[in-house]
Each structure stands twice: as structure tokens, then as C-alpha cells.
Amino acid sequence: MMTFLLAPLLKYLIIIPFVGFAASLFIPARMERFIAWTSLATVGFHLICAWLFIAFWLFPGDFPTYQTTEFSLYESPDYQFFISFYFDKVTTVFLFIGSFLILLVTVYSSYYLHRDNGYKRFFNALLLFYLGYNIVIFSGNFETLFIGWEVLGICSFLLIGFYRDRFLPVKNALKVFTVFRIADMGLLFCIWLSHHLWHENITFIKLTNSEVVQAQIHSHMTISIVISLMILLAAAVKSAQLPFTSWMPRAMEGPTPSSAIFYGSLSVHLGVFLLLRAYPFWEHLTPIVILVAVIGLATSIVATLISRVQSSIKTQIAYSSTAQIGIIFIEVAIGLHDLALFHLAGNAFLRTYQILVSPSVVSYLIREQFYNFIPRLPNDKNRALRKLKYSVYLLSTKEFYLDSFIYFILWNPMKWLGRKLDGIGENTAFNFIAISTFIGVTCIYAKGSIPQSIYYLFPTFFAFVGLLMVIRSFTERRNAQFSWVLMVVYHFWITLAVSFYEESNFIEMAIYLGGVLLSGIIGFAALDRLKTLEGKIDWNDFQGHIYEHPDLALIFFLSCLGLMAFPITPSFLGVDLVFTYIHTEQIDFAIILAISYILLGLSVIRMYSRIFLGPHAKTYHEVPNRSS
Fold first, then answer.
1. Which of 60, 236, 270, 281 is most deeply packed, by most CB within 10 A?
2. DSSP letter (8 states) at residue 376
3. Whether residue 615 has a cis bond before it, omega within 30° of 0
4. Three-class SS state of 622
5. Model-wide pTM > 0.85
6. Three-state SS for 450?
7. Residues 6+ positions from 430 with CB-CB distance below 8 Å
8. In this predicted model, what pLDDT tens digit does every residue of 264-309 receive, in sequence order?
């Protein structure tokens, strides 16, 4: 009876922050008090509703699990994309922590950011973050979770780059967003392979059926291992585990309240949430369990060493939090989930408190050091031990070269290939696109006369050419409009690649391209208008045009979201549909598509950042120091 009454109410815990966010968009920026009260009313009312819901859920004493399917975004004979919500013990803990801490930070921010130019922007982003957080913790399947995951990613970019007239915040926001795209790729792979493993849009409640899960794992061991690895990849990136730990201190460039709520308490723990939610699946794979524990152990050791040598208090807290999350990974791996949830809650509350009081602590420590500092004399007589300590100290100060490692493995090869393609000019590129498109369309209609072994390779070939276009766009520095057109054309090429499959559907491709084309046209018009006003768009460095053209900046940003398949846009559904066509044996096609998806998001956000954010290019505007 209680399940019948409570389960339909889950969606309202999502609607409340959405209504608050939508209302905050229409409040004028000068009305600080109204903005603060709207935000406080939203999160306060949500806290009351959430805690009442938890109380009624706890009352019977049997702690039931709720799963609801709210509505379908798209249905076909072979595929269904539906929004599903889920509630259990894990959701309860994350909901309790999130509702309390978001209210605390909202109250703190209403005073801390008083008279700041970005007061309205901050609360808009904060409410959007809370919406994404609730979508993640209430998600009943991977597709719903991915929607909230993407919302959190874009909120991270907005809040880290909150001080958008400074060089370092914008640069670090872009760097963190770059790493988060790897987590997005992991979830996309997980969704794609789950469709082929289960032949349906699998819900989390079905994953709790141990007999069915074990039967599928034994029948499809390779696919199961890859799915588990992709889940672990997404979780490790989101929770700043090795080797992705270095993004955590860069994220501290944002305001203190956003650092507390994002990287001290809520967002950074969602990697643990993902592992807990998918645990009924990967617990049956011993190598994955061992790998989760090893990554957690290695991160806790390395992050602890790095935190001990940091000169910035927020960086110390960031690495300390990462070390504790590494221990939580170990607890999850060995099945101590109740302990992991208690540990997670304690870490979240402690780090939020530490970050919020860090400005005061800095002042106190400076005074202590000035008046009471006593240098510690070396007392190690063992020369070998002393050398080892010095070596570890130097490695820790260099953060174990984790940043350089990520660049060397992931981004430097892309930049190298992009420089090789830099000689391809506009005329050459467009001629190649026209000729190749003609050949591709001709091959589709002449399928019967082409050997099947060759025809089977066409999707991968055209997807690879689309990847080259994205890489060429990724490294373009002179002509922003040319780069934008290449990114729009990439989507058409992916559609062309998928059209070689017999099961491809014209309506589904029209949904995909409709959103892309609309975003592409609007974004190109915004760039053209900016070029008319400014005479030239040079994006070798940050230009800061948002100060003189805020409306164009907003329009172009929304176009960027559409082109990168953000969840609020039609192209998001299209990307998910495209992945459903790829067969499991075409892993090369899936990898190419995933890499293209990552680079495309980086290209559009970097273009937005360089053109509209950062210190203003014109000398009559005040230019802050490059380092804060």
C-alpha cells in the first residue's frame, strides 16, 4: 500500500528543482534578494518534501524499493528510450545529504556573493546543478542517469569558469570539462553494450535479479567485462581517482560555495553512486572487483602524499577528499556498502565545512605561521631513506605528473594528428566533402552491385572520415566559421555512415539531423553577426566578447549545447539512436564514434570559451592578472 502511494511521488522531487531553476531565469539580475529567496524557497521546500518522503519510506521498516517508468521519449519496434526513476537505500542517503548541504550552501552563498556581478548566474547554475543531481540519484536506468550526468558536466564548466574575466578559471573550467568527456564516453559505451546484452532498455531493478544477471554474464563474458570497465572508467573520472586525479584541484578555481557543493560533497561522490547502483552487475566479475579496490588503494596513497605538500588550503582539502573516496571505493568493492554510505556522508559533511571556512582558516594560519613558526630540523641519519623521502616529496609536488600523463596519452596524439591536417584549407575540405558524400550516397543505392565484405566496411570508413573532420575542427585557430561548419557536417557524415545499415530509420535520422541543423544554423548566424560587429574573430587566445555581446554569447552557447547533443536538445536522442545501430562486433565503429563525440564537445565548448570568455581582447577593458 505504501509503495502504491509513494512511488508516483518520485517525479515531483525532480519537478521542484526544475520549477525553481526555470523561475530563476526570469528574475532580473539586479533583484538580489528576490533571486536568493527564490533559490532558498526551492531548495527549502525540496528538503521538506524529501525528508517527509524518507520518513514515510522508513516508517514500515521493510525499506521497499520503488521503480517507476514515467514516459517514453521515443519508441520503435526494436528500441525504447524511456525515463525511469528508482528509489532505494542508496538513493535515500544521497537525497538526505544533497538536500541538507544544498540548502546550507544556498544560505551561505546568498551572503558570500552579495553584490557580485555574477550573483544571478551563480544561483541559476546552482539550481541547474541540483536538478541534474536529483536526476542522477533518482535515475532508474542508464539513459536517465546519463541525462543528469551531462547536466552536471555543463554546470561544472559554468561554475569553475564563474569568474569569466580571468584567465585561469576559464582555462581550468575547460580542462575539467575535457576530462569529464571521458566519463561521458564511458557511460555511452555502457549504454550501447547494455542494449546488445539485454536487448532492451535495462532498468536498475532488473539488475538486482542475481540469477538473470549471472546467466547473462556467463553467456556474454567479454561484453560484461567491457560494460563493467566502462562503468569503472566513468566512476573513476567523476570521483577523481587515478589516473584522473589532477582535475580536482583545478576545479577549485570557482567560488568557494561551488567548490564546497561540487567537489567537496555531492558531485565528486557520484562515482561512488554509480558503482553502488551497478554493483549487482559487476560484483560477479572478480577481476573488476579487484581492479576497483586497487584503484581506490592507489588513489588514497597518492592523493594523501600530494595533499601533504600543497600550499593552497583548498587544494589540500581536494586531495584529502579524493584520498577518502579511494577508501570508499575499496569498501564498495569488498561489499561493505553500509560502511561506504556512512563514510561517504561523513566525508561530504566534513569537506563542505572545511571548504566553506577555508578563507577564515587561511587568515588564521598566516598569523600562526608568522608568529609561532618553528622550522623542523632533519633527523634522518639513514641516507638511503632520506633520498627516498626527498624523491617522494618531489613527485608529490609535481602531483606525480598525472596532468602530463593524461595529456601525453589522450590529447597530444589528437593535436599531432590535427596539425598534420592543418594544411587542408576550406576549398579542399568542402570539395572533399562534396565528392565523398556523392560517392557514399551512390554506394547506398548501389548496394546490390558491391561485394558484401566491402559494403560492410563503409560505416566505419565514413565514421573515420567524420572523425578526421572533427580533429581538423579541433585544431583550427583562424576561421571560427569554418571550424563550426566542419562540426555540423560531421553529424551528416555519421548519418551517412549509419544509413548503410538496413535497420536504419529515416524518421530517427530526421530527428537527429533536425536538432543538429537548427543548432548549426543559429550558431553560424551568431558567429557571422559577431564578425560583422567586431570585424574579425581571432580565437588563438581568449577574447572575452561576452562583455560587449552577452546576447550573442547566450545564443551561441545554446547552439553549442545542441551541436554537442546536450540532453535538452533533439540531437541527444539522435546520438543514442545512432549507437543502437552499431553491432557488437563493430567495436572499431563504436570507438571512432565515441572519440568523435568527445572531441566534438571539446571543440564547441573551447570555441565558446575562447571567443566569448576570458580577459577582453580590447585594451580599454580592465585585464586581470593571468594568475590568481
1. 236
2. P
3. no
4. coil
5. yes
6. coil
7. none
8. 778 888 889 999 988 888 888 888 899 999 999 999 988 888 888 8
